[in-house]
Specification:
This protein is of the alpha/beta class. It has six helices and 13 strands.
């Protein structure tokens, strides 16, 4: 079963928090241009047992959203980016919450676009035990020469939080020539998966590394799944993930 209220057309999005599971919310932000394609944005907010909040891939900030996050999930303690192209609104959030610890994914700090963003740590470097590990598991999908991505799992709600490696754009939102391109790329509908051009970057030797990450994700046996782009899954997520990552 899917979360139907997250199949909105591109021109009807709100950055209000919507509860997805106990102590876990999503908020849809503005559409951004990605190589000429109108891409929706989405963030995740988790209330930790400490009463502080963990923020994933933040969308454009405003006073109302910040106030809602603080009221429902607590003061922002961690801000995380899952891959090196999910950085557009990080600076806004890191400046709004200077005491929060900001985590970069592999490869982001070296990008020119990341200049001026404060990072306190990088996934896969330094820390062996993340401070939120007891509540949120993580794994880096490695093996691509273009981009690595960090995936997360909220243990209490059994929710996998997946960024770009699984995309499930609603069919009604993608029509015409651009819709045809998205369908050819395997990114539309319930069987949406990873962009084909990204898949190619795991060749010729990267798939073995990628399988290690995939196997950890499958071991989570997620019941729910949040994706950055497209329709989320409210139950039976493990089977959806296994099918979407079968190309690995």
């Amino acid at each position: 079963m899917v979360v139907n209220n997250h199949k909105e057309p591109h021109n009807n999005r709100s950055n209000k928090m919507n509860e997805f599971a106990p102590n876990l919310w999503i908020a849809d932000g503005p559409v951004v241009d990605f190589y000429g394609l109108p891409y929706p944005t989405r963030m995740v907010i988790i209330r930790l047992n400490s009463g502080c909040s963990w923020v994933w891939s933040p969308v454009q900030i405003n006073d109302a959203l910040a106030a809602e996050v603080e009221a429902k999930a607590g003061p922002v303690k961690y801000i995380v980016s899952p891959n090196k192209i999910h950085h557009i609104f990080l600076k806004q959030w890191s400046e709004k919450y200077p005491d929060a610890k900001v985590y970069a994914p592999p490869g982001l700090e070296e990008r020119k676009e990341a200049e001026g963003i404060r990072f306190d740590a990088t996934f896969g470097q330094g820390e062996t035990d993340l401070p939120f590990h007891d509540e949120i598991d993580s794994v880096i999908i490695q093996g691509s020469y273009a981009m690595e991505e960090v995936e997360f799992f909220h243990k209490a709600s059994k929710t996998a939080i997946i960024c770009d490696i699984i995309q499930r754009h609603p069919e009604e939102a993608w029509t015409g020539f651009k819709g045809m391109l998205m369908r050819l790329n395997g990114l539309v509908g319930d069987k949406g998966s990873c962009p084909r051009e990204w898949r190619f970057t795991f060749w010729p030797f990267g798939k073995e590394k990628a399988r290690k990450g995939r196997d950890i994700i499958l071991s989570w046996r997620a019941e729910k799944m949040i994706v950055a782009h497209g329709t989320c899954v409210e139950e039976g997520a493990a089977a959806v993930i296994e099918r979407a990552l079968s190309w690995i």
